[in-house]
Design brief:
Layout: E1 18-22, H1 29-36, E2 42-48, E3 68-72, H2 73-76, H3 81-91, E4 97-101, E5 105-106, E6 112-113, H4 114-120, E7 124-128, E8 132-133, E9 136-137, H5 140-148, H6 152-159, E10 164-170, H7 176-179, E11 184-187, E12 197-205, E13 208-218, E14 226-232, E15 243-254, H8 261-282
Parallel strand pairs: 1-2, 1-4, 2-3, 4-7
Antiparallel strand pairs: 5-6, 8-9, 10-11, 10-15, 11-14, 12-13, 12-15, 13-14
The structure holds flavin mononucleotide and adenosine-5'-diphosphate.
Flavin mononucleotide is lined by residues 172-176, 180-181, 183, 185, 198, 213, 215, 219-222, 229, 231, 255-256, 264, 268, 271.
């Protein structure tokens, strides 16, 4: 049956018969493997540690058709095993099945793991073996490391999608259009930012997706401040109030200090050529 995306605010918890439990920052391919084991009345129980920065809470539902219910780790981490199961049964009275990964632990001092879950829960417990891709274990902390290294392609493989951040447009130095190329300057709050450098990206503005190039880093050649700036390839777009989304595809080069604006401008024009060639070759 074709299922449509359901927000947890619209789904009655009484209808839920299966749940997957975890942190789910990233909604990566291992998380998706858990979700495949849910039935059509399945839900995601997301335990919020406060550290999520790949898919912060309000951005997570986009990546699953199953409704997500959020619980704050601080409020449940003291529970003994039986109290945790009791809570789940109170929350989801018709719960028949729980899906977790091989490393799932819960409760006081994380002393209850999958064996205890099987012992304490009267229904079915499905445990997913460790998911790896090309011998790399798929975990949000591993994906964060690849992003911090600028290895977007590996991060994207593990995510099963292009890493995407959301930001608000802010005013830049006003140098871009005059001395370089026009850019949209962004303020990014909740998302992990990849390593400083220049990236091939796609930018979504007002639901339209554009090919783009994005600089992240300290503007060591101009004012030294940290910036996230996107240039839309082949278009001149005015800054606007739209929330902007950036999808990362590939790093072109590291951040660099240039001897003057002329050199920086020449390099930016080269970067733009590389990005355009990339998009020509994939289509
Ligand atoms: C594709 C691209 C690459 C960039 N690379 C660098 C760089 O390597 N080093 C640097 O200091 N600034 C770099 N910048 C940032 C420029 O310094 C910045 O665009 C300029 O300061 C204009 O800023 P404004 O938009 O706030 O006016 C780059 C910008 C773009 C669009
Ligand atoms: N590589 C993996 N293979 C199998 N299950 C996993 C894997 N990564 C996470 N899980 C399971 O997914 C759920 C969410 O785990 P979480 O700790 O939020 O993920 P991560 O390890 O990526 O931070 C847990 O039940 C966990 O056991």
């Amino acid at each position: 049956m074709e299922m449509t995306k359901s927000s947890s605010t619209l789904v009655n918890k009484n209808t839920i018969t299966s749940i997957a439990i975890g942190g789910f920052d990233g909604m990566h391919i291992a998380h998706q493997e858990l979700f495949k084991n849910l039935d059509e009345h399945g839900a995601i129980v997301s335990i919020e540690s406060g550290y999520a920065n790949l898919t912060p809470k309000i951005y997570r539902q986009e990546y699953s058709i199953h409704p997500i219910y959020y619980y704050v780790l601080e409020n449940i981490k003291h529970l003994e095993g039986d109290q945790f199961i009791k809570l789940l049964k109170e929350e989801f009275p018709n719960l028949k099945k729980i899906v977790v990964g091989y490393d799932f632990c819960f409760g006081k001092n994380r002393k209850y793991c999958t064996d205890k879950l099987q012992e304490l829960f009267a229904g079915e417990v499905k445990i997913i073996d460790e998911i790896k891709l090309d011998d790399i274990a798929v975990h949000s902390r591993i994906i964060r490391e690849y992003l911090k290294d600028g290895d977007i392609q590996t991060a994207n493989k593990l995510l099963g999608k292009e890493y995407k951040i959301y930001g608000h447009q802010i005013k830049g130095q006003g140098l871009g259009s005059k001395s370089f190329v026009p850019t949209i300057n962004l303020k990014i709050k909740e998302f992990l930012l990849p390593k400083e450098g220049v990236y091939i990206t796609k930018t979504i503005l007002n639901e339209k997706e554009y090919n783009s190039i994005t600089f992240l880093g300290h503007r060591v050649t101009t004012d030294g401040s940290y910036a996230v700036e996107t240039h839309i390839l082949g278009e001149n777009i005015k800054n606007s109030n739209y929330t902007t989304q950036i999808k990362f595809i590939k790093k072109i080069r590291d951040n660099q200090k240039f001897n003057g604006f002329e050199e920086l401008k020449n390099q930016i024009l080269n970067d733009i050529e590389s990005a355009k060639n990339y998009f020509i070759n994939i289509y």
